[in-house]
Fold these 4 entries.
Entry 1:
Amino acid sequence: MDIPSQGAVYMADIRKIFYPSSIAVVGASENLFKWGSYIFTNIIAGGFGGRVFPVAKNRETIYGHRAYTTVAEIEESVDLVFITTPAVSVMGVLADCVKKGVKNVVMITSGFSETGEEGTRLEDEMIAYCRENGLSVVGPNTMGIVNTAASLYATGSQVRAPRGGISIIAQSGNVGNQIMEWAEQQNIGIGKFVGSGNEGVLGCEDYVEYFGADPDTSVVLMYVEGIDDGRRFMDAARRTSMKKPVIALKAGRTETGGRAAASHTGAMAGSFKTYEAALRQSGIILVKAPTELLTISSAFDSMPLPKGNRVGVVTLGGGWGVITADECEERGLTLPPLPDNVYEKLDRMLPPFWSKGNPVDLVGQPSMELFLESMNSMVSSDAYDAVILLGMVGAGKFVLRIHESAASMGYYSRDKLGELQQLFADHQTNFLDNIIELMEKYDKPIYPVALISTPGEEMIHYRDGSRFKAIIYKTPEEAVFCLEKQYEYYRYTSRRTTGRP
Amino acid sequence: MDIPSQGAVYMADIRKIFYPSSIAVVGASENLFKWGSYIFTNIIAGGFGGRVFPVAKNRETIYGHRAYTTVAEIEESVDLVFITTPAVSVMGVLADCVKKGVKNVVMITSGFSETGEEGTRLEDEMIAYCRENGLSVVGPNTMGIVNTAASLYATGSQVRAPRGGISIIAQSGNVGNQIMEWAEQQNIGIGKFVGSGNEGVLGCEDYVEYFGADPDTSVVLMYVEGIDDGRRFMDAARRTSMKKPVIALKAGRTETGGRAAASHTGAMAGSFKTYEAALRQSGIILVKAPTELLTISSAFDSMPLPKGNRVGVVTLGGGWGVITADECEERGLTLPPLPDNVYEKLDRMLPPFWSKGNPVDLVGQPSMELFLESMNSMVSSDAYDAVILLGMVGAGKFVLRIHESAASMGYYSRDKLGELQQLFADHQTNFLDNIIELMEKYDKPIYPVALISTPGEEMIHYRDGSRFKAIIYKTPEEAVFCLEKQYEYYRYTSRRTTGRP
């Protein structure tokens, strides 16, 4: 008979935390500067479909919802309880939860081990009680959780990223929130989010295991300061990273950072070198900055993996080609010369003084036809594992601006500007659809980099019915960085699968 | 008797290129897909205040301006001639210029040395003729020039960055244009721009000398692939970098990049190690990506220099503090502990479980008063040379969103949202003004990093009558990177001034 491991038990529980049918918020409040209000309003305004019960003393209603004095008093079943009341009240609330048969708790409450000795004593007592009574707890001192698939937005800030496949584990609520904020701004899809807080009961290792098994998660994104159970974490990470990429930022890399981490999450950061080696061996892709976490995760979530390090580059301008070539070599990627068939084809199309090599320089001619032909030749060639396209996206805006200048001088109709704008927008949509088609056909990643990008503009292109998306990069270095990391992950999984180095 | 060096002669000429009273555009055209139209419409629509004469065959007018068949035919004096006609026509146009007494030419025309042997022969002939006749030439194969102080926007793309102190030398037109595009989007002030093209007559060394002497230029920004006259360039750079920072990206750092550069500008890139050492010795601050060029230049243009590497950090959330601490140590900056007087002051104000160290963690309390007090204590302390502020800017939006959620549920008046928004905007303005005042008072840089930034929002704050600006950074790593480079420059100038290492 199989006895489920601790991990397996937690896994079943963790699913229920993210997919509750009914929620109680203890400490719910109409005071807009209290956590009991942050969480309650976010759940309701975020569009959660299940039942939500406010629990508050001496109140008939909270935001028009009938209020209860205790969790135990609620007549219907309760799948998940958020606790926002002070640390001293928590043991009483947990007793209520047990009485009511609640199994899952998100403990927003702070004032535990992060505040010193007395808090640590309280936290230990709380943990012992939860273990004894089979309670799964996120936190304490957590920013909350999100599950976009259930329209469950239950964090302190009212950030609501769109639905997608990137799931986030954050040992810092503010860093996690900022990543979701960027995702919302860029329309990058997020699956689930958990602020792991003090990790009293559930820890990083449990979340990474669960996200590994979660069919709605395609990429796991982590912000980590310290790991309590290193062995279990590495095992879980190793299992997960064979199924999907795990992208992590390990903060507290330096002595100064380690000291700051110790005062923040109480994490004993340990030597980064040791961490780094262990994390890499578990297949985790390491980055250094929070923005990189999202950029890299989004690349994994959107494109096929490169099966080698040979890059083809097509550019509208020479300078970008040089910058891209430098970045590629410095990141272990190569730019092989053009194979004969590609050379001959391009030589027929391009002006006589074209670059005659890789990067293919279209010498400033923003012709969609030329660009499409060059792109097709490069992507379809066996000589390249990935293709970077510099400057075609956004080129329409360049042309549009010249027409705007002429219009301002009275020499081009303002009415026609709208038509032109629509024409370029359609061209760009077709171009990005084309990129997605090519990625599907050849199973290679393609990275378009914008000539001009406008702040607030969509930088990710979705195509109905496709498993891939086209990401518009703002700079070549960002595209090359993603390619490097995707290739690193490809090599890791190949080694694990084939046993070859 | 002093004989002016070649450099000095060019300097006088170069000034006239950027401050012409009258301009002729040879090849002016109403065809919106021709360079003769790009340049002409950009000059007119950009608001240039001087006279502009189109030169075109068989046309009465161009965009309503009386057209001339040749430059020589123009009755009034002409300070600067743009040539956009094909390479084969250039010698004839130059002869016209000489006849008319024109001294300065911007040669947009391509098809010279960048296209092969015949082009090189033509370019050599052109150069010899210009030298003989005392013609100063920008280009050929240049994107054009800009001087915001004269509202002179004369490049191929209609980018119009606001007026400011950062002047740009670009050996790649598209890279230079993209930098101006970013500057326009972020409201970062640009002084002058020159696309140096093939550098037939005037080269990088002339522009760096001129920008060094130009009172309207506070920072010199360069994109370089190769330098012809290394000795003259290094001398000019050394002179300029003692007066103002010179920030450069040297592309073609790698073999792959060098090959791409050779095919682009024909630059013989040479060993990057050699370049790197020489450039650094000349006081040039090197970066690796075009976005970094602008970010770093803007920091130099906006803030006082740090006089040491000791950084104080105030944060609204622990995670950012850890990330910032890591970045600082990795970039050679230190986070000294709090001096007693600062410690005692903060200990009286903050909750008992505050971080008690540097970074000062305000544990998520978005109180402007607390933040201002902490900032003042850190900036005024002799223990710190620079201060990084994490999360106060944008915190109003966090609060606003909670109110929006409540409003969407019918519990907070939508009318009041507008008032609240205005209140937060005012708070933020005061906060940023306060930062500028502190920078003036203590002559130290202060780097606010936003909790939430909205795309397209102003990320630079100007205060009337102040020599400093407040830059709102999107990420801590960006702020730390700027601080590192500003400190590098401070050390360089101190060594040069004091002779000490």
Entry 2:
Amino acid sequence: MTEERVLELIEQKNYIDLKKELSEMNEVDISEILNALDSSITLLIFRMLPKDTAVEVFAHFSPEQQAGIINAVSDKELKFILDELFFDDMIDLIEEMPANIVNKILANSSADERKLINQFLKYPAQSAGSLMTIEYVDLKKNMTVQEALNHIKEYGLSKETIYTCYVTDNNRKLIGIVSLRNLVVAETDKYISDILHEEVIYVETHDDQETVANIFIKYGFMALPVVDKEKRLTGIITFDDIMDVMEQEATEDFQIMAAMAPSEAAYLDSGVFELAKQRIPWLLILMIAATVTGRIITKFESLLSTMVVLTAFIPMLMNTAGNSGNQASTLIVRGLATDEVALKDAWKVLWKEFRISIIAGVFLATVNFAKNMLFDRLGLLISLTISLTVVVTVMLSKMIGGILPLIARKLKLDPAIMAGPLITTLVDALTLMAYFAIASTLLL
Amino acid sequence: MTEERVLELIEQKNYIDLKKELSEMNEVDISEILNALDSSITLLIFRMLPKDTAVEVFAHFSPEQQAGIINAVSDKELKFILDELFFDDMIDLIEEMPANIVNKILANSSADERKLINQFLKYPAQSAGSLMTIEYVDLKKNMTVQEALNHIKEYGLSKETIYTCYVTDNNRKLIGIVSLRNLVVAETDKYISDILHEEVIYVETHDDQETVANIFIKYGFMALPVVDKEKRLTGIITFDDIMDVMEQEATEDFQIMAAMAPSEAAYLDSGVFELAKQRIPWLLILMIAATVTGRIITKFESLLSTMVVLTAFIPMLMNTAGNSGNQASTLIVRGLATDEVALKDAWKVLWKEFRISIIAGVFLATVNFAKNMLFDRLGLLISLTISLTVVVTVMLSKMIGGILPLIARKLKLDPAIMAGPLITTLVDALTLMAYFAIASTLLL
């Protein structure tokens, strides 16, 4: 169904067909359509949906639509939504809403819930704690498989996942996991302690979401338990939230590497001023940083005015250096993000980039030399100057590009800021210095 | 356990502790350790593992270790491995192995299996077909819930997932899905047809893996059915394989945007020549493309030799233009990859970039003008030339950066090649032309 179809059916007051067609749709698609519609129509359709579906649709609404719904519904309706919403979605909701709506939400929560909400709101952004939810299946060691299955049958529908169940002791300490697969295939009179998997991989509430995502990717887990410092189970993270994290982390790195402030907002939904604000600071910083290259050129003005031909090769040299550096830094930034490269590999990286840069530098310089001599018909010494500069700057750029992201990681900065524009500006300056130094030596 | 600990225990011939410590490890970690060890030790440990664990460890081995194992084991052992391996892992294996090992594998497969292998090998790389596996739970409409659960109990352990079950008719046509969650909470005497979910989202064998990944992210699915043109169920794709795809697709885009040939090999595992080969072609192309900028400079040599100060601002202008273009193109490339931007948005993108570029351009030009007049103490006309060039090139760059990836998508090229270096080279040339045109007008 499309927006147009919804509006058409509403126009005709054909609510029977509307209900029927909505019931055949996935909740995500329903909320996508409603997000684009007017809030009064959204409310009308929202109330038409079966209650469970409505809550799932609500969870996928844009913050604006969520605020509209909360403002419009009765306390009783709101209580139902809040009860049915998974806890992680509830926390996300509270973080997005303005103060008056947060107050309405808190007023419709119990004291215990409010305490828990406060606790969850304190977890740092992009930490495991900020991703987890509390609706997991909690089993005990001395349950039989049949008892566990009955427990799941009773409470399973309100849990975020029932496919991995968590076994805790009386102090809420995590002692193992049992998959529903193992429960289903086990003899029903066996005990949980018989089929328990005790070697559990878990994360702590303050672990970074990138770390969490890399564990999911490495092991292919469906869910991961989150524990506090005393190893008490405080929540679980499910794979679907991690897919969002992966997408978001990659997007952030793309943005940072293209000299922008990272933003989670979708491009088409962002305002022009918002996008401009995301971009201008780095453009400004880099523009001012480029003053250095200008200074270097000014310093060698007399050399350039006697040999203007040298100027013509400045852009090529700077681009080649920038591209060489970027290649290396991008691979290292990405390797760090996916846990394929670690700090301890610094010497390996440097040695590798050293050898690659010799191959690439000599190759490019040779092509250049041939081109300069045969096509551009430049003199031997000028051709030599340009080609030597290519070798030197490709080598410098690749080694700097390889090592800077590792230095950033060491300094606990985001390695991504070291790729792209910052490297480009740095190697630009180095390239010019090398160029003029070689030219002064060979040509004067 | 670490590599050193494994070697130590083998040295001591303390196989009891070795077995015990291995049994407490995740299969992925075991294979990671064995990947780093000698193939004779790998084989020794491989045979020490419980058979089911051994196959899972095998599935995570590097191709070299897999080849070593297949060469070393008996036909009977190989048959067991092949039987237990999920079909998608088997296809991956066959694609990685040299011909003699593929022959050994095929010799140990039945005629039916060989037929199926051949069919799967034909699916295009990076298509849904190349990702799917055949080990899914197949239910029938007229089964009761109890019958379905019994079926799962019997066959569940050999399936890639049992959490989503697929209901097909007698022609293998997909008619619906049932989640294990719904089976577990349902009354056992109900029929599958009662709890069947008929509105199934599915993909076709030839759909691109990026499309598949975006469906997983959007809906948070655990598995997705793959059908052929007649809507017959041919396999399923599970979320863990999609996480790998997401990582791989992002890495590919990073590499392409940093002017490299995409490669799936990990940086530290890649040889120096391999890495050089990945990088040199684009460096070469871009170096030669930069000849154009050189030509433009040569053409305006006389202008530059009378006003050498103009040269000093070339790097700043080119960088600002390149960065501006990159910002826009990166957002659009990423938006296309995550399905947030589509071809139909071309005008919206252009209009948005037009407005952003006015804001950014005018802002940067103003700062520049103030700096040139107050700090660099340049003349009014030269300052004006530089600032006007900033406005013009920021605008050009952002609009080109926004639209080129969309043009690439339209031409069925990878939008990522339009970001980064290619845009930089293009806007470099445009920047110089604008600069010299404005300078000639204002200064001569």
Entry 3:
Amino acid sequence: MSRVRVHNFSISIDGYGAGPRQTREEPLGVGGEELHSWFFPTDMFQRMIGNVGGTTGADNDIAARSGTGVGAYIMGRNMFGPIRGPWTDEDWRGWWGKNPPYHSPVFVLTQHARSSIEMQGGTTFHFVTGGIHEAMDRAKAAAGEMDVQIGGGVSTVRQYLEARLIDELHLAIAPKLLGSGEHLLHGLDLTALGYTCASHVPTAVATHVTLTKTES
Amino acid sequence: MSRVRVHNFSISIDGYGAGPRQTREEPLGVGGEELHSWFFPTDMFQRMIGNVGGTTGADNDIAARSGTGVGAYIMGRNMFGPIRGPWTDEDWRGWWGKNPPYHSPVFVLTQHARSSIEMQGGTTFHFVTGGIHEAMDRAKAAAGEMDVQIGGGVSTVRQYLEARLIDELHLAIAPKLLGSGEHLLHGLDLTALGYTCASHVPTAVATHVTLTKTES
């Protein structure tokens, strides 16, 4: 059965998924990029940016689960780009260049309608103004028997957790403090929402945990 | 120079240091005791309760730093016992039996005065009604050249973090979700308070991080 998954979602020791003061230069906010230090050296990421010779091992094995068996993606509008409010710059086509690493439909949550954008390599960005349930319905229809992956960011993952629509959430806890920014879990009672910690793989650079939703 | 330290402070993935609904039977709240699963098998803990043959290795090495070089302790009144409000039961002398594992003065924060209690093995419980600064002054005077250790619980550690009076805080992040309870760091901006993550030792059963305060 098709599942809804989140992968490679990095948080700080104090629970932040992004730092404060997000800008075009620092899209993850001050200090936010450091949360992903475990990910950048991996073979998975290095291949994504056209390199070879990345690290193998547990971090890479876990990182590489992202995208596997996935037929459609959902992301928040702030993950798609730095523009807030109306689409004043229609030339913005995401952070990922002409051939984004999704190779399937990507449903972008936004309050501002925009025509779909077909990219190279099979990625098409669709802009969904009807909320998280509409985006999920469209992503599931597009994915068919395959899984739906939620890319992020914090606000999007929080909304889907609260709606109990995520089956599997991989968190990478980085050995960093952020102090402020976007907190992933504050105010969400994951136990009451039916989640448990199903796996725990610590490495030298991150602690990987997978939270899964028990059937209710 | 004498330092103020916290050791073996366990929190859940979602940041709780104790679970909800604390009772005499479950002093750490529902699910709270599980946060310490990494600690119970260690040689350090097993010796503390009179056994031999506990585990050695990184978890034990880290656990055993607790108490080393410590000349006085501070703890919150809820860590000392389950009684709330006035001391209706003067027979309560802590959770630890006749010979508590402190072997030095222990300053208990409370709003209700009570005479000091001299226990076996060098532990004396003193009850401090003047707040966290008075407790710290008295603990430092008692410790002399040695360090002061803050035992807990969550509220006590939070207050001393906010006052920037903790030099070193060892957290053990357990691979558990609690969902609710007492959150250790919510609303505290540790970066602004001057803390950084100084060490990171992941093991099969917990992720150990040490946060230290930079001088200002």
Entry 4:
Amino acid sequence: MSTCKVVIVGAGFGGLRCARELAKTNGVDITIIDRNPYQLFAPLLYQVATGGLPEDDIAYPVRAAIPGARFIRGDVVRIDRPAKSLRLQDGSVHHYDELVLATGSVGTTFGVTGVAENALQMKSIQEARIIRHRLLQTYEEVEVGHLPKEALRVVVVGAGPTGVEVSGAVAELQRRMEDEFPDLAGNSRVTLVEAGPRVLPMFTDKSSARAQQNLEQLGVRVMVNAAVDRMYPTDVHLKSGEVLPAGTIIWAAGVAAPSEWADLGDTDRAHRLKVDEYCQLGDGIWVIGDTSHFAGSDGRPLPQIAPVAMQMGRHVAGQITAQRNGRALTPFVYKDKGQMATIGRRRAVVEMPNGMKLHGTAAWLTWLGLHVFYLAGGRNRVSVVADWMWNYIVWGVGPRRTVID
Amino acid sequence: MSTCKVVIVGAGFGGLRCARELAKTNGVDITIIDRNPYQLFAPLLYQVATGGLPEDDIAYPVRAAIPGARFIRGDVVRIDRPAKSLRLQDGSVHHYDELVLATGSVGTTFGVTGVAENALQMKSIQEARIIRHRLLQTYEEVEVGHLPKEALRVVVVGAGPTGVEVSGAVAELQRRMEDEFPDLAGNSRVTLVEAGPRVLPMFTDKSSARAQQNLEQLGVRVMVNAAVDRMYPTDVHLKSGEVLPAGTIIWAAGVAAPSEWADLGDTDRAHRLKVDEYCQLGDGIWVIGDTSHFAGSDGRPLPQIAPVAMQMGRHVAGQITAQRNGRALTPFVYKDKGQMATIGRRRAVVEMPNGMKLHGTAAWLTWLGLHVFYLAGGRNRVSVVADWMWNYIVWGVGPRRTVID
């Protein structure tokens, strides 16, 4: 049997899980392509953005991470479907028998005026670094009079898990920064703006209410039914006419698949490629994770979260192996593992698929445990995991972050 | 009794120790001025340069670090001795009754041709970050053919503690990078170049020999009696005529005091200001730490190391308090605490003032203990200290560093 050449584009949760499973099969030649030489642990980007974790802690080197898989650092600029090949920015052409597209998602402005120019997004290490620098630097600038005190106000748009998590973490950071800049105490503020009627809309009403209550305990002003009309460098204008002054605007209101693959097939509003029940497009192309539109049992696309990507990655690896061995394909079935969000450092909301709900510290420990062990566990990175937990747990002991230009 | 206004320039080991002691005295108004809002833990810069520690771990916020002391972020551009005032870059003028200069040291090229243009120094976070990026990025560049394999060679100039420590850490980093880039295995190399007859010249012969042996076990090529004549972007030329190709050249051959204070008094070759037995210049100016030339019992200036700066800082605080209370001044006496250097992660050489010597793991643990608890302990930064130890101890478990542009 000849070797089957599998090219996986994207070294995220989905792509790497797929590669790891395929590496167990003989006769498969695996190439992983990504523009960065690391796996980004995106669910903790907000920790980097708020100074809780150093950036190395959420970026794991992917080279040599999976024995037997080749890694190429590069940007895919073209996919030639009939020729079954793709071309990188450096001009090199790579043939594939099976192509797994696992390119994740990017931030999207939904066309709201001023978002691209004035809001900070949080989809990459670089963006998280910029937010962190802005948050810290603003205190310096206000103290010496280069910026008005209003610049210490932060507006977060979008109350999904990312928006909720970053709001809580910014509120905690602000309290600590005010200890360092006592003259500025009382001027910091986080406002979380959500267009829908409640925070964490995908959770139950009760969990939403708890999350909002926890945020308010941390000093976050929560505004629901508040849609953003447009924004300017230092102001967010709501559709109601209210204007929120802000030194930092964080946009956490939506993600979309990268638009460059849209011509490969049917896409939805968020540029996701619609796949069949096996996660395939046809012609040996599979699409997984955030880039994929897979209709769930309720007809709606599966959420853009790591567990979906990982399950799809494992499933597609299984299908490629089955195909090779002349076995029939099996439809993908998503096993809901529940959902969770942290609010600050000791609170979280967790909803299990069996209807069980956790709040407070128990939920926070569950969140920590699942993030740290379940998601990172496959890489067996004892050191990173321990460093993380340690960083995370002792964060409260003393100031740790400062402006390093 | 009127308030005594003390201005301390430099938030390093010396300046902060001085401020902390002065804060115990009533009637003293303390201002600390530094161009950075953090204390740099310089003895561990080489760890940041080689990917062992994140930069936040060696930069502690200084604002609010000492209750009762004011912090101003700024650059001192002029000292007006008769008027007892200094001027910052932003134009503000600050009066003092007592001025403590604790401005540390900077790298010096000793006028060797090509050093300033081609060698990387390691005196700031920014410089350490550049070295780290260069070391990691070179593997990427060589792999895709943008740089020749020779670029993986590193030359370190100067075999004092800094040169020895960085050589060992780079050698360990290279071994790990070759695991990630197996195609490049066998091409990395560190060469440590020392003009004198042995490494760690301030240690005993026996400790020097041990250190050299340990370095060689890590794969470092050690060249003694090898003076650098000049350097070019990819070559170091020795006086012997030998040429060492290098992708990265790290200059650890010498430090000097910042030259801008030279007109305040007599200076030595390294721009250090010669002080009297109380560490003073006169006119209410005190000079401590690396900026100070204090003749030790053997007539030679005290070494430019943290324990000297800290002891001087405490001493000067005591003198300012004594003066204020009408008591006589006491000459400064340096208590030698010994010296140490690490070589890689499990080896070190330690020499105690009582003649006791330690090598190997015992020495390494001593080094770790003293650095972590003695030097950082005064700040009571449990979290940072623990994070450090953890990072440091588990470093061997898995790859942790990658290029994040």
